[in-house]
Structure formats: C-alpha cells, structure tokens
Amino acid sequence: SRRRAKSARSQRASRDETDGDGKNADATDATDATTARAMDAAADAAERVETLTIATRTKRATQIAANSDVDVAFRPFGAPLAFLAACAKIGVKTTCGEQVKTAPAEARTTTKDGKVDVSGAIDALEALEDACEGTGLIGAGSAAREEVFEWLTRCRSLAPGGGFEKQCEGVNEYLATRTYLVGHDVTLADLALWAEFTTNRQWAVVEKKGKCGNLARWLATMNADAETQAVVAAANAGNPILSKKATTVSDTGKVVGAKTSGSFEVDLPGAEEGKVVTRFPPEPSGILHIGHAKAALLNHYFARRYKGKLIVRFDDTNPDKENVDFVDGIMRDIATLGLDPDVVTYTSDSFDAILKMGEKLIKEGKMYIDTTDVDTMRTERMQKIESKCRSQSVEENLRLWKEMKAGSKEGAECAARFKIDMSSNNGCMRDPVAFRCNVETPHHRTGTKYKVYPTYDCACPFVDAHEGVTHALRTSEYADREDQYKWIQEAMGMRKVHIWEYSRLNLEYTTLSKRKLQWFVDNKHATGWDDPRFPTVQGVVRRGMQVEALKEFMLSQGASKNNNLMEWTKIWAMNKKIIDPIAPRHVCIDNADAVVVKVLNGPEGEEWFTTPKHKKNPDLGIKVVLRMNEVIIEQADARAISEGEECTLMGWGNAFFKNIVKEGDVVKSMDCEINPEGDVKTTKLKMTWLANWNELVPVELKDYDYMITKKKPEESDEFKDIVNPTTEVVTMAKGDGNLRAYNRGTVIQIERKGYYVVDRVYVNMDTPMVLLSIPDGKKASWGVSAK
C-alpha cells in the first residue's frame, strides 16, 4: 500500500509538469491536492500500523485442499472464527468438536486424512492458500496476495493492552479511503482482523472514544457478512459456558454443574430468516432501567440473528404519566446501548385503528361498556361476579361508547371491558378493561384529540399484529396474560404473534418499578432519574458502568425463564475487568487531619518529573509529578508509622520517619529522610503522598450505598419503611494537578482508594471536582452494601 501511494504521488507530479494551462487547471489542482492529502494520510497510516518487514514470504508447505473435510478442536471462547468463515466461503467442510477445557490451548485444525495438522487460527488461514485460489480471498494478483499475508502476520501481534489503541488508530487511518483491507472485496486479511476485534474486549473501550469511525464502519460491514454471522452464532451455540445445560467444564473435559447463567442462543418458534420482526415497547413514563436494557438487547439480538427487523415502539397510552422528555431520554438510552432500530413507532399512531376495532368488538358482542365504579369492579373481579352491565344490549353499549369518545361526564365514568370469562381461575381473563377515558390530561403527541385510550393489554396485541411483529418477547411476569393476549388477537381477527417468555431481571436491594423509582425522586431521596444510585441506564453509566459490561451481564442472563435474585457485585466485577486496563492512576489525599511531612533531604525548590499514567498501558500517556521538601500523607498512614521506621513513599522511594508529633491519637507532623539505597520490598507500609503545593486540585469523593435496606423487596412493602437513610458519603480531598485535564465521564483509579468516574470537572479552586466511586465487585466497607 505504501508503494502504491508513493507511485501515485510520482504519477501526479509527472502529470502536473505536463498539464499546461487548460481551463480546468484550478479544479484539477484542487482535486489533486485533496487526493494527495488522502493518499499521503493513507501511506502514513500504513507506516503507523504495527508492521513486520517480510523479506521473502515462504508459503506454508502443508496445504488444505479445496475439497477437504476438516476437524476443528478449540476451547470455549477460543473458536478460530476467521478460519471457519473462510472455509464457509470456499466450501471446505468443517466439523467442530465439543468445546472443552482439555482442547488445545490454540485451536487445532486437522484434515480427515491426517495429512494436515495445524495449531493456531492464523496458521490455519495460511494453510488455506491453495484452496482459496480463484476465490478472491487471497486478493487479485501476486502483489495483493503478499499484502493479504502481510496482514495475517500483523494480526499475530494485535493484542489488548499497551499498544492496542494506537494500533486501532493506525488501522482506522489506513481504512480512511478503503472499504476492505486489500482490494475491493473481503480477503483473508479482513477475516483475520475481524476475528481479532470480535474477541477483543478492549475494542469496545476504544470505540466509545469515537476516534476510530473508519474502523467501526469496516467492522459493521464485516459483522453484516452472512458467513461471519453464521460462524459466530454456531460457536456460541456450542459453547458449554453459554449453553442452557451447564456453566462449568471440569479438567477432564466433562461439562458439569447446574445452569446459573443463560444464553440468547435459543431458537424462536416459527422463526424464518429474513422474516422475523421483534419489538421493544417502552412506556415513556420514565427512562430505561437495566431490566429494560435486557429486554432491548434481547429483542435486538433476535432481530439481527434472523436478519429481520427491530421495532422500537413507544407505548404511549397513558397521558397522565408520559411526556416527551421521557421519549428523548429513552432514545438516548437506546443509543447508549448501541441499538439500531429499523423503525421507531408509537402506539398513538394506531389510535384511530384501535378505536375502530373497539367499536367492531362491541357490535360483535365481545366488548361491553361498564358503568361500575373502580372499587366495585375490582371486588367483583376478585370474587368472579359478573357486572350488571355485562348483559346490556349492543345498542346501549354503542351509545355509551359514543359518550366515552366524546369525553362527556357520563362517558368519563365508564370503562370498556372485554367479555371473556368471569368464572376463569386466571384473573387476567375476567373481563379486563380495554379502554378508559382521560379528558383532563392532553396527550404529549395527540393533544386533546382523543378522550378515550386503550389499555396496554388491549393495544399491545393489536399493534403487534398490525405492525407485523412475528415474535413478542415478554418477561415471565406476563405469563398469566398470555391467554388474554391470544384471546384478544383471535377476537379481533388479527394475525397470530408468537410469544416467547424470559426471566425478569431481579437485583438485590433494588426496585425496578418505575412507579417506585418516581417515589424516590418525588420524595427527594434521589436527585433525578440519572441519580448514580438508580438502576437506570443513565444512572449506572453515570456511576462508571461501561456499556460493554452491561451487555456482558445481560448475555450471562440470556433468554432463561428461571427467576434469580442477582447480586450487583457480579456486574461491577465484570465492569472492573474492562476499566482496569484503561483507567489512569492518580493520587488523592483526604483533607481530614492530613499530615505535613518535612523531607529533610528533599529538593530545595520544585522538582518535576514524568511517569506513565498506567504502568501497564503506556498508550494512556504520561503525568507530571511534583517533589518538594514538604509532602502530605493521610492521617491513617501517619498513625501506622513508628518512630525511626522505614516506609515507602510510592513513586519516590524509601524514607526513614522521625520526630513524630502527636496530640492524643492524632498525628500533627513528622519528618523523614529519603533513603536512596532502600528496597521497597523490605518495607511494610507503602503510602501515597502529594507535594504540599498550593495548586493541588480540590476534590469531592462520593461513595454510595443501596437505596433500600431490604434485600428482596416485595410488592406490598411501604418504601418509606425500608428506605436507607444514609446512601451517600462525601470525603473532601486534594488531588494531583493532572486531574484538571479530565472531562466528565472519564474513569480513573485513585491509588489505594479505588476506581472513580468524573462527575463534575475541575473549574476553579472554589468549585471542587466531583469523583464518584465505582464499585469493583467486592463488598463495601460500610452501610447495607457491607452485609
């Protein structure tokens, strides 16, 4: 690619010399300049991509023939995706063995005749060179072929950690003027790099920064490829850790243990590729919580798995609770989750059609208008007593229906009910309410046009069928309503929609009821729906939850129908694995009784030096550290120091401490002398410190507890009785000057304290920076969280 870029520049220079004074010279020059910049950038990007100089490539001696049958063995999560996709494209038959821990550490590929035995995904791809002849997978021509195999070599060194982000940026620039890595179609190079990114957790972190749009676009293209989609689905389906049967694998390779996590790898009844339509129907009466996130991700997964359609439909049937702000908030949440709905609709789009259907049901004797008051109706339904209005004439029902639609005083006191079965043991079948009036509150979209609105139970089965939904995914709490859903669709003469149930997400010390979450907001126990203590998508993301961790947690739940009470520690532990490699390290010292230490042999003035923000990830850059002859340490550390003891000042070295001054149990001051010959391995106490400088950043460190004190709240609980009175602890501190540079949402680690996310940036010395504590999956040291 670099040779081609340089050649193109030479050709341009030659052409420019002979261009003459043609009337299009200015336009040509402008176009050439743009082209030159693009090609120069591509050439420079190619230089930045981690490359290996290959003097002469030696073709792999053992090759897999085009008509071969191949056995592939690999461990869970170790599928050679690129090799399997390549085989699918060229017709090489592959048989994948059981995924067990006793499989080779690297995927092993063996032909049935035993002539080829290869370990490693890239080696297996190289063994397909002969089989790919004439297919385009190795490029068009010898030069393109060499580029393809050079990319395979590069992929061997692509790994998370130190240089990963810079590698991503190089590939991103390389793809600025390309659809594929080599040529104009998919090659082994694309498959190899795609497989690396598919299994690399760190890519999600890099992608979130928004710097690699070209790379993200290329990955989306690769993920839409039929063969890549198929091999990922097949690998997941055969993964015992994701299977419905077990979650652990013994050392002998036997799958053991009861299921504690789930998988989305289930088959939908009656599903046909290209014809599946799912829907995610949030009510705009609040923003999404993580229970909704599970529903959204599940519907999105099946729509994409079957190459179908995802509808996001706002169930806006209750004007009293809904508003446009919640619509906007939910759309932000959907974007945060990375969902790409094919269409966004509203139940209110179908109000006219639903009302027309209601009148049809009245005429057919399947619905009646009830003038009974709410309390009496509730009692009669509980006791299986028919309403006095159940047997009234169709004419009377139509008259009252007209009053309801007009919003008259008589109509406003009525409710339309399906006539199903008042003797049923299933309470949902005892003539549920289908329509009710609301004449006072304007609808956020339709204003005062309608006076009567369908209930969710009425609207959902109608709109599902009306919009072409093929599969309605519902939590198991709706199990009793399944018969009702089917009855309504049949009564309306609508197309049948398959129902698939999965378990509701339940988390300890948490309510996911929007009504109860609103109670916390209304009673000032929460600052809003994005409160970092809230289980909303905006709340957990504000507290430092990475979307990739949220998705991984939902994947672990899958489409199981088993209801479990999940621990928050599990999801936060997943989050820690993602943020730890990319969180820069910094120091904060608590203000309370901080101790000034005189460094007797310290520098006379200010001594600045640089150090990596993360010792294991140099891509995060460097930070500046100040040394002075006075430093501050925390009171807890000072109390642990004995007179004459040698301790370690982290990032400086060992020091002997003396002249310790106390007032009671409180240490007021001390001196130390740096010991340049000291060995940090020999000291018991290793402490953080900051130079006693007047430009340290004022910081509020906020830690949180659960909002309720009951592990598994019940529907009947009065929340005022179980609300946690102390859910926030604020510690004032001073931080190192590097903290000034961070934006809101940046995740950092405060050494010896934990992970934090920036909630308010540094503005000036009078406005402290606010850092929110991010749980790391371990039990907290205080409050309900410590139980």
Description of the molecule:
The protein is an alpha/beta fold and 787 residues long. Helices cover 33% and strands 19% of the residues. Strands 18-31-32-33-29-30-19 form a seven-stranded mixed β-sheet. A hairpin with an 8-residue loop joins strand 32 and strand 33 (769-774). The protein is flat and about 100 Å long.
Task: Give short descriptive properties of this protein.
19% strand; disordered N terminus; single chain; 787 residues; 33% helix; 24 helices; 7-stranded mixed β-sheet; alpha/beta
Mean pLDDT: 86
Name the helicity range: 25-40%
Largest sheet: 7 strands, mixed
Output the number of helix runs.
24
Secondary structure class reads alpha/beta
Q: Pick out the low-confidence regions.
A: 1-55, 243-262
Per DSSP, what share of the residues sits in E-state strands of 2 or more residues? 15-25%
How many E strands? 33
First-residue to last-residue Cα separation? 60 Å
Strand order of the largest sheet: 18-31-32-33-29-30-19
- What's the alpha carbon Rg, rounded to whole Å? 33 Å
Give the overall shape, derived from the CA principal axes.
Answer: flat
Topology (SSEs and partners):
Layout: H1 2-17, H2 25-48, E1 69-73, H3 81-90, E2 93-96, E3 108-111, E4 117-119, H4 121-126, H5 142-156, H6 164-174, H7 188-198, H8 202-208, H9 213-223, H10 226-237, E5 248-249, E6 255-256, E7 277-280, H11 290-305, E8 309-314, H12 324-336, E9 343-346, H13 351-363, E10 367-370, H14 374-382, H15 394-406, H16 409-412, E11 415-418, E12 433-437, E13 452-454, H17 456-466, E14 471-475, H18 482-492, E15 498-502, E16 506-507, H19 514-522, H20 537-542, H21 547-557, E17 565-566, H22 568-579, E18 585-586, E19 588-590, E20 595-599, E21 607-612, E22 622-627, E23 630-633, H23 635-639, E24 646-649, E25 653-663, E26 666-675, E27 686-687, E28 690-691, E29 697-704, H24 719-722, E30 728-735, E31 747-750, E32 754-760, E33 769-774
Parallel strand pairs: 1-2, 7-8, 8-9, 14-15, 16-17, 18-31, 20-26, 24-27, 29-33
Antiparallel strand pairs: 1-3, 3-4, 5-6, 10-11, 11-12, 12-13, 19-30, 20-23, 21-22, 23-28, 24-25, 25-26, 29-30, 31-32, 32-33
Helix pairs in contact: 1-2, 2-6, 3-7, 3-10, 5-7, 6-9, 11-21, 17-18, 21-22
